[in-house]
Amino acid sequence: MSELDVEAVDEIDAPTGIEAAEYVLYGGKGGVGKTTCAAATALASARDGTATLVVSTDPAHSLSDTLNADIPATPTQIREEIPLYAAEIDPEAAVGDGPLGVDGDAFGGMGDLLGGEGMMGGAGTEGDDPISGEDGLLGGSMPGADEAAAMRLLLDYVDDDRFDRVVIDTAPTGHTLRLLELPETMDSMVGKILQLRERFSGMMDNLTGMFGGDDDDVDAEAGIEDLRELSDRIEHLRSILQDPRRTDFRIVMVPEELSVVESERLLGRLAEFDIPVGTVVVNRVMQDPSEVLGEDVDIPGPNHDDCEFCARRWQVQQDALARSQDMFRGHDVRRVPLFAEEVRGERLLAVVAACLD
User: Fold this and answer.
1) CB neighbour burial string for 74-108, b if at least 16 within 10 angstroms, e if fewer
2) Where are the alpha helices (DSSP H) in 200-305?
3) Cα(62)–Cα(90) distance, rounded to whole angstroms?
4) pTM for this one?
5) Are strands 52-56 and 84-88 parallel, antiparallel or unpaired?
6) Tens digit of pLDDT for each residue in 236-274?
7) C-alpha pair distances (Å), 20 with each of 53, 100, 245
8) How far is CA 273 from the centre of its chain?
């Protein structure tokens, strides 16, 4: 094949627009390429004028590197020529001072009295949480605090009228599943808070009478109401995720045995939450890019004939690919080749988008 027969990467017709739901989520084991797929999808989506927001809830924050742009924690347009917006959520920064990331004290002042340097807690150390801290009444950190804070911000973007499509690069599998479990977790937390307030209500009434004022009761009611509101909003998001007309959850994996098993587990867990999976992306396939794309491109591919390592790895991948094809029968399975260079910037992201199209 001569050079005239080879289409330059820069001349590949990058997908303009995509046929996808209002919300596209990429999930899977850490390090399989979810960020790359999300960035490629968002770029393609915005190219036809669709206002698209790509959000990363992964603490690793590789979205900035992939898109070659400084991405803040709030949605910001990162391309002047197309309506592409991006945000990287920092769960730790979003947690805030209150339990589960809500402002105020849902315990109505009990936190200061039941631990730390309060009347019942002894000396304590700075930063101790008498309720959810290691020595607190609930014993250890409250489940899902960073996930709840990230979800609270994510909910704001999901309901934002500025965007026609939201593409989400989720955290690794375990974190994603914990997000989906948060409504039940938070209902449990609210119940425990109410039990604690009732148990200590007599003591709090006496203390209020001694020192005057009822601000703690106001703070308590406001804090509990915040928790309930957050739980309701997360339940709203879960209902969106369960609607195949609005959401396309895409599992990303690599053609290796452990990744296939992890993806099967994720598919099963998502089914437990009634969240449909439409697409499975097999990334980093040691196959010639031209074979994957169905057109000749001048992207270096593996040499299975002269490279023994490439040939062996390809055999391992073929076994995993065969299993994944059987396992995910009925789903749209897409392949993305392993590139010789790191996927950064629009040049190779356009190729990835073409593979996903």
Assistant:
1) ebeebbeebbbbbbbbbbeebbeebbbbbebbbbb
2) 201-211, 215-241, 257-272, 289-293
3) 12
4) 0.76
5) parallel
6) 877 888 899 998 899 999 999 889 988 998 898 888 888
7) 14, 33, 9
8) 16
